[in-house]
Amino acid sequence: MAGSGGPLSRSGLRGREDELEELQALIASVARTGSGGLALIQGEPGIGKTTLLAEAVSTARAAGFSVGVGKADELHHIVPLSSLAACVLHGDRPLLSDDAFVDLARHHDQRIWLVERLAEAIEARAGSVPVLIGLDDVQWADPLSRFALQQLPTRLRTSPVLWMLTGRREPAGPAEEVVAAATGNLPAVTVSLGPLSGAAIDQLTSDTLGAAVDERVRDLLHGAGGNPFLAVEMLAGLWSARTSDEPVPPGLVVGVRARLRSLQPGTLRFLQMGAVLGRSFGFRDAAALCGGPTAVSIAALEEAVRAGLLDDDGDHLVFRHDLLRQAVYVDIPPSARKALHREAAHHLVAAGHQPVDAVPHILRGALPGDEEAVELLRRAADDILPVTPDLAADLMTRALELVPSARPLRFAVGEQAILCLTRAGRNREALSTGDRLLAGRPPLETFSRLQAALGGTLWNMDLAGELRRRAETALALGGAAPEIGARLAALRARALSRDHDLVDARAAGESALRAATAIGDREAHVLALSGLGEIAQNAGENAVALERFAALSALDTAFLPEEIVAHLHMDDFASSGRLLLRAANGAGAMRQAMTLWAQGQHDLGLGRLDDADADFLTMERLEDEVQVPVQQVNGRVIRSRIALLRGDREAAREHLAAAQERLVAKPNPGNTAAVRFLEAVHADADGDVALAVDKIRQVQRSDLFMRWRLLRDWVDSAIRMALRGAEYELAEDLAAQAGAHAERNPAVPTATGIAAQALGLVNRDPALLGYSVDLLKASPRPLARAAASADLGGALLAAGRKPEAAAALTDARDTFAESGAHAAAARVQRDLDTAGDGGRRAVGTQRPVQGWAALTASEQKVARLVAQGHTNRSVADLLVVSPHTVNTHLTSVFRKLAINSRVQLANLVMALPDS
């Protein structure tokens, strides 16, 4: 623990030998095993966290690690990625160039995308050399860096990447969040630093003052409470006092305040201006706040550096320890601090800094009525909204507080606050904010703007009826600007898409689209196309829905997933595949989770059950990461059905429970119908036909469009349940729905084939079931083909036509087995056995839980490529999937093989007989 202000010697790291040994063991483990690790060094300010981190970093560097170390700053915690910047930009071999980092920080508006790119850069370096990334004072990390730190250690756990963080003890603070996210996924240790022992303090004293230390000095150092920084500061003061024959003042004053009092007034003022700017600050900025010529501040800087209070790295001045900065800062009267922060904000912006750089000072120094501060907060919120929407919402909430209620500016600020809160997923806050503003009786034009801003909020909250009421009220009152009127009309049409009268909804949507096109308002255009797509989808008009969603994704590529799913509803898997390839290549601003939803639907439709399950698992993980759960209920419903098809009843029940739990948080009609249908499927699997039929009736009582949207591909299962329960009227109603859907979509083979299958089941007609099999030969959906063949085989078997039944059943069994639907294949096999023609047994059996044979085909592909040295990105490029999906596969591979690193995986793959 090097001191300053005097010739403090250093004979090792005093009193921290055990802690250093623990960190050195983790460093050696990461280097030896090739897998990741995380260490958190915790303790009070000045306890030696930074020094211990530096010592561990030196050990890692000597061991051949590529090292990147940064430090978070209390007053610089707003700028996105500022905390991690030093970690990846500095060092002997920076992980990213300055230009590449700027590209990440400025030109991409998706947190998930950004974290994945950071992971790829670190993973590429770790492929040739172990990597250590250290961040000091993580409690002050900016929100985007915190988000990245919660994802990256787990994402990179199979590579030799060691994360070392220091932080103060804060329950549920940033450090604990990072450790919690990593726990169970990679080795994580927490090193808690307590006070130094008396023996260690004695060693520090001897290092500084020599062996002859009297009791008076020992008593004085007792006041440091075992805090090494305070002890060193006291020793520095003692050294200065001894050499100058000055009396030794008591306590901390020896170490800090005595030295401050010995400075020239100009130097103390310079330090105070620096303390306001932050631990790290620019010389010109501090000099400007001092108010005099820059040349005058040079002498102050020189004295501060000589006194050991500041370090000068050539670009910035840095207080040697934050406790030094705080000691200077707290001596500034509170009212003066507030004024200086406000002045600092004004200066930073005037000097060309970004608004976000001035925000910490605005938050500390602005007073109500400060419109310049409000404008800076608005600009900063706009800048950071794409990557840290929650922080942007906080800034706008503060901006709104600064605007007096009587000023018209309040409504414009409030509108922006609503949009930021909605983007952050804080919909209830957004609605509450909007209603408070509306209670202030704003002018009609402003009233309309606020209601339009609340449109997305109400839609996210599944309050379509309230959205319609508000939009219609605003339109009826008049006074809206043309573009706002067009948006309100589009919002009304969107709300009507959830209504029973879809004819009226369609007319409203067409009118809104014409208005949006005529005015040229892009937002109204997007809303109108989105509403029309929803209306067509809810009406079961697949071709029209595709037309609308294709136009929407051409206008905004963020809606590409909707177009992909619309192609799937048309059985156009070739087009959906091309669009998924485009999404995988990073074209446009993709919504990563929704793209995975579309990928999952694509894989499910093609009978790739393993891949679909991985897609939906990855989608849920990404939605959890950004805390925007959109498709989690439906994802769990599908995964439960996949598990039942595979024969994994335990996993199926787990997914059902998760879907029911998530339904509580998002109980919209679609989610409710999906969960009720899944409950019916489980009841049927458990042999409770009465309960299954009751659940199907609950689905039937839901909104009309929800019925067929849910049952579009699964109506055959519902009809079988109804028939087993002797509910023939229900079965006929379901078959009629399938027939109506086919009439609306005559060019979709799956729709026409399932309609024939449904009618054949109700009528127990082998001829109709045979016709459905013929129709479904043109369908790209193997599971639909297999189900129809199984129904045909069962009907032929019941009619005593065993040879024909055996042929149909064999085709069904083999198709189910090829898709990994082993439970479904086993059920068909039992019918084959009944037919007296078991024939070739079902292809494939249920996989084991552990070992190479437990891996799916996709997991084996990923494992072999990674074993060859590929990164997640290069594997994703080769397999034309998302890197997130590769990560999901790789996680499963490591769990099933009980290994922890890519090195272990390479050794295992090389030992396989076919390698």
Rounded to an integer in angstroms, the radius of gyration calculated over CA atoms is: 33 Å
Helical residue percent? Answer: 55-70%
Order of strands across the main sheet: 2-3-4-1-5
- The parts where pLDDT drops under 50 for at least 5 residues are 1-12, 241-254
Helix and strand content put the structural class at: mainly alpha
Largest sheet: 5 strands, parallel
Looking at the structure, what is the overall shape?
A: globular
Cα end-to-end separation:
53 Å
- Indicate the proportion of strand residues: under 5%
Q: Please tell me the overall pLDDT.
A: 87
Walkthrough of the structure:
The protein has 915 residues and is mainly α. Strand 7 (310-312) and strand 8 (317-319) form a beta hairpin. The protein is globular. The two termini are 53 Å apart. It contains 47 helices and eight strands. It is 67% helix and 4% strand. Helix 8 (198-209) runs parallel beside helix 10 (228-244) and helix 12 (265-277) packs across helix 15. It has a five-stranded parallel beta sheet with strand order 2-3-4-1-5, with helices on both faces. The chain has a three-stranded antiparallel beta sheet with strand order 6-8-7.
